[in-house]
């Protein structure tokens, strides 16, 4: 794979990431997952952030497609956690910037 192709793929992923993080609800989901340092049930996240089930589903899909989260299904429940590798490679330091803002 050429350097240009690698850069283009990473740039396309960066564009998806920045579009995903441009929404306050999705940014709050990322912040919550970072603060909890664990996976959370999708319903629990929706309740904690007062997001309807349909809106939450849309936000989870957008974050997953941008490579920012991973989703795991167990029976009827879905669990979401941050994809730490994406943050480490493409957004180093971003998560720590979400810590308690005053």
From TrEMBL:
Coiled coil: none annotated. Pfam families: HTH_20. Residues 6-102 form the HTH arsR-type domain. One of its GO terms (molecular function) is DNA binding. Keywords: DNA-binding, Transcription, Transcription regulation. NCBIfam families: HTH_metalloreg. This is Transcriptional regulator, ArsR family.
């Amino acid at each position: 794979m050429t350097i240009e192709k690698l850069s283009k793929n990473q740039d396309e992923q960066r564009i998806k990431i920045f579009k995903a993080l441009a929404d306050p609800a999705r940014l709050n989901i990322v912040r919550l997952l970072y603060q909890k340092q664990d996976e959370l049930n999708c319903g629990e996240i929706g309740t904690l952030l007062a997001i309807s089930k349909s809106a939450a589903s849309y936000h989870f899909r957008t974050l997953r497609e941008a490579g920012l989260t991973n989703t795991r299904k167990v029976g009827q429940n879905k669990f979401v956690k941050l994809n730490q590798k994406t943050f480490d490679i493409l957004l180093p330091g971003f998560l720590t910037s979400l810590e308690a803002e005053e």
